[in-house]
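Fold it.
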Amino acid sequence: MTKSYQLGITQSFPCNYLLDKEERLLIAVDERLQDAEHYGWLMSQGFRRSGEQIYRPHCINCNACKSLRVLAKEYLPSKSQKRLLKKNNKFNIVIKNELQENYYLLYEKYINKVHHDGTMYPANYTQYQSFLTCNLTKQVFLEIWLDEKLVSVAVTDVLSDALSAVYTFYDPDYRNNGIGVFSIIQQIYLASKFNKEYLYLGYQIDDCQKMNYKNRYHPHQVLLKNNWLTVNK
């Protein structure tokens, strides 16, 4: 795509991930970018979405956020990931195509217990809908069940050549089951099943404990200086 598009830049504000840094975002404000085709292209350029807003870090004197995507068809689980898969073989995976009514109580429990020190606390229904729903592209919702109990939901965008992991929320009672890691593995498998090349995981931030786990899935690619660099284990 060689057209010119209008982008906006936010003011700098305290970074949510690195306490000694300030954050600034590049926002895709052009209406021509607000569809599935352009959203997929923007993802390949290092953008991501929150609700309907498509953004990319554009910070002064900091490039800690690195867009990362897993090569879904080539993915091989590590030894620890294989152990986790074996441990969690009691769970059932169900795929839904729309947000379900029974998700909110699980989301509320997750936010209020796991992220009580975060910006989304306390959870509320309006925030939940605006954050997770999207008119830009098709979505799927990867559910994890234990018998009749909903344990986790992974909100996932569907792009032309990829899936994008938007957000996962789960029952904190199952935290010891590594539900976050387990959900990512299942999303990788789903991407391969859908014949997609990649699963986008958002931004890897090496110096942030909450955001430095995404490079544990191999092989993956990291966007560096507008080029995707493949990293094998």
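The first helix runs from residue 36 to 44.
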